[in-house]
Design goal:
The chain is mainly beta. 5% of the residues lie in helices and 65% in strands. It has two helices and 14 strands, in the order ββββββααββββββββ. The longest helix is centred in the middle third of the chain and has 8 residues, at 95-102. The termini are close together.
Length: 265
């Protein structure tokens, strides 16, 4: 095969986890499965060196545990947010809207909404992935060509939802519960960039067609979450305040081990 350009289709199951920068506030909630599907292209640069890129739709999962969330701890902060539920409609109230309501002396926000003390969050984020790798191949050995590759994996967010675990507080009622399918578009950064390194092989099926299999480790350079939350509130000492502060200093890098299986033509 003496082609200088190759095109193919791929699937990409992945194992994803978060690496928080602040161990006193966050911890990884373990590994979550993801899945991607898309197209790939290889451009020959010279010799056995190729430029590999493409585009894929990637469905990512990740889980984050919040550690400073003990409501009985009267010496520190804990995260949470105001939540409303009316019929089949439910959602979260932004920090700015809560603070605006507090300026109204006749506000009923505390009776209209429940407070959700946040303990864990499972992310379900959809991305468009655009990898850019340098691929270095061996000569063909039998039907096999081996390669190593490194570069960047850049992702653009298209959708973000979450399932939150914690304690819901409504008046004097306190209950453990999960809130499902929450819209958290404003909590997740638009772009995600990771350094990636790995390798694999191509198995020649015919003169111009090959099965390709690769495993890559993605090391997150950027945070999945925004630094300051739009709706999570830092509650101090369980006391009522005149203005709530946004939960800040969030930096949770997204890592992954990614398996790529595809057909190159």
């Amino acid at each position: 095969n003496d082609k200088d350009f190759r095109f193919g289709l791929k699937i990409e199951p992945s194992f994803n986890w978060l690496s928080p920068d602040r161990a006193e506030k966050f911890e990884s909630g373990g590994i979550k499965m993801g899945f991607g599907i898309g197209a790939m292209t290889d451009f020959k640069l010279g010799g056995n060196v190729w430029l590999s890129t493409g585009v894929a739709v990637d469905f990512n999962g990740a889980k984050l545990n919040y550690l400073d969330n003990t409501i009985s701890d009267t010496s520190g902060f804990y995260p949470g947010y105001f939540h409303y539920s009316s019929g089949q409609s439910s959602g979260v109230v932004s920090v700015d809207d809560v603070n605006t309501a507090l300026l109204d002396p006749d506000t009923t926000i505390f009776s209209d909404y429940s407070f959700f003390q946040l303990e864990s969050r499972s992310y379900k984020v959809q991305y468009v992935n655009i990898p850019l790798f340098i691929k270095m191949k061996t000569a063909e050995i039998g039907y096999l060509t081996y390669f190593g590759q490194f570069g960047l994996n850049t992702s653009i967010k298209t959708k973000a939802r979450a399932t939150d675990g914690g304690v819901i507080i409504s008046g004097t009622n306190i209950a453990l519960t999960d809130l499902d399918d929450l819209d958290i578009e404003k909590e997740v950064n638009l772009f995600k960039v990771a350094g990636s390194i790995g390798g694999g092989f191509e198995y020649n099926l015919s003169e111009s067609t090959s099965l390709t299999v690769a495993v890559n480790f993605d090391y997150g350079f950027t945070s999945l979450t925004k630094k300051d939350s739009d709706h999570i509130i830092a509650i101090q000492n369980g006391q009522a305040v005149t203005e709530f502060e946004k939960y800040s200093n969030q930096k949770n890098k997204a890592n992954a081990v990614r398996l790529t299986v595809g057909i190159l033509f």
